[in-house]
Design brief:
globular, single chain, mainly alpha, 22 helices, 76% helix, 486 residues
């Protein structure tokens, strides 16, 4: 019988797997050179030792009654792991903007407009490429579900967290293989993003495109820099913020971590309420006739909106200092590790094997689009430091945000170009829509309701808009720079 103690043991095993992942990362040079996150390594270990690999081998050799037929992990643990990605992804998105200083939209837009245009171009292009492949190749030849047209964006832009969070949506829409395919694409995206990004960084230096000081390839120095950044963030809080927090915490017998977890909980609750209201509105309006989209939207994009609401309200009430950004990052980081480990541990290799050619076609097409867009479009959309600023977006569009930050660190370790700030500001105009945002969540349902052709027309129009805007804004900003230098 499934009990809470099963969940506890399942979470303990995740911690043990993460330690194993850390150990392997230190000992295996290949993992270091690929900059693989420990959570991905831990998830791979869980997959190998679970029913999909070890269990399948044991069943083949000794029959289904073999002691290892289910792998090394109990069945109840597998049940907890299979449910964990869809739960913990809400924590990741709820904490995304909690504790962040949110400047005015106008200020952000002025600084990050080229970055927004390039990032949006990459994302909408992934939809266009995927839907074209579905209409022309995958559905007619392989009989693949049209929802597969959204997999490149969900997996590459959204990463493992979004891919895992969308699994239930795929099942509701009848695309049972979607979750496993998305997770496989997300894994390949991280690998290809780091490999391609490392090669492009070397190519950019040879060509003279990189204007920042060259970065060392030594992994330990990169780790040290990240740790120093974290320490500076914690110690560098303004004195008035720390004093205000001390006044607000006076007399409160609650740990700051517990308090910040409470803010995450409030953000998720607000997101759940927003989603419930939208579902009710849909049920009594357009949904009454059979047209349903919100019904299939998962909770996590609404949790992101809930986090934004909590952040704005607490600041307005003078309680913003209670939300400690480094703690929110740790909460989000732990939740994301759980999502990645459990999602990879639960992946079905049989599904990937049965859909190997469509899987490879989608993966190769997505990789080629991202690299081509970086090499040919970034210099025409980003008016200054196109290489340093563009490679971050390319990394994010092939894996996760951390991949983008890693590639920026490779080419601009001291942040001479301001690429990191532009990349961070861009997320405010990016994450709520694509890369795990509202459109990412709604895209599968839109494909089912309207068909892939209609969604292709929509995404093509959005791609054209952002591309035209990016090219126009490039010329405008270049003209402004020239006038300022006269």
């Amino acid at each position: 019988m499934f009990t809470l103690i099963n969940a506890l043991f399942a979470l303990i095993m995740i911690g043990i797997l993460l330690l194993i992942g850390r150990f392997l990362k230190q000992k295996v040079r290949l993992f270091q050179s690929l900059y693989l996150p420990e959570s991905v390594i831990a998830g791979g270990v869980a997959l190998l030792l679970g029913p999909a690999v070890l269990g399948a081998i044991a069943s083949t050799l000794s029959g289904t009654d073999s002691l290892l037929a289910g792998g090394l992990f109990p069945k109840t643990m597998g049940i907890v792991w299979s449910q964990s990605p869809g739960v913990f992804i809400n924590v990741v998105f709820a904490a995304l903007f909690l504790g962040e200083a949110i400047p005015s939209p106008i200020k952000i837009w002025r600084k990050a407009a080229p970055q927004v245009a390039f990032g949006q171009t990459l994302a909408w292009g992934q939809y266009v490429i995927g839907l074209l492949l579905v209409l022309l190749v995958l559905s007619p030849i392989f009989g693949v579900d049209p929802i597969a047209g959204a997999l490149i964006e969900i997996a590459f832009e959204g990463g493992h967290g979004t891919a895992a969070g969308m699994t239930d949506t795929f099942r509701k829409l009848g695309f049972n293989d979607g979750g496993d395919l998305a997770l496989g694409l997300a894994t390949l995206g991280i690998l290809s993003g780091v490999i391609a990004g490392t090669w492009l960084a070397s190519w950019g230096r040879r060509k003279g495109y990189i204007q920042a000081s060259p970065a060392t390839s030594d992994l330990q120095q990169f780790r040290d820099k990240i740790q120093n950044t974290i320490q500076q963030t914690i110690q560098g809080e303004p004195t008035e913020v720390r004093l205000a927090r001390a006044r607000l915490m006076d007399g409160l017998l609650i740990d700051p971590l517990s308090l910040n977890l409470a803010f995450v909980g409030v953000a998720i609750a607000i997101g759940w309420l927003i989603l419930a209201v939208l579902k009710f509105i849909e049920s009594v309006t357009w949904g009454a006739g059979g047209f349903q989209v919100i019904e299939y939207v998962p909770l996590f994009p609404m949790a992101l909106i809930g986090g934004l609401i909590v952040q704005v309200v607490t600041v307005r009430l003078g309680l913003g200092s209670l939300i400690i950004r480094p703690l929110q990052e740790r909460i989000s980081g732990v939740a994301l590790d759980v999502v990645i480990v459990t999602a990879l541990a639960s992946i079905s290799l049989r599904v990937l094997g049965n859909n190997l050619l469509p899987f490879l076609i989608l993966a190769i097409a997505g990789i080629v689009w991202n690299i081509w867009a970086f090499v040919f479009l970034a210099p025409r959309i980003l008016p200054r430091y196109w290489f340093e600023r563009g490679i971050g977006d390319m990394g994010q569009s092939m894996g996760v945000t951390a991949t983008g930050i890693l590639l920026i660190q490779m080419v601009d370790p001291d942040n001479h170009t301001g690429a990191f700030e532009s990349f961070a500001y861009k997320q405010l105009f990016f994450e709520p829509i694509v890369g795990g945002g509202l459109f990412t969540a709604a895209a599968p349902a839109l494909i089912v309701q309207f068909g892939p052709s209609v969604v292709l027309l929509l995404t093509t129009g959005l791609l054209a808009f952002w591309l035209i805007f990016g090219l126009w804004n490039f010329k405008r900003m270049r003209k402004t720079f020239r006038q300022a230098n006269l």
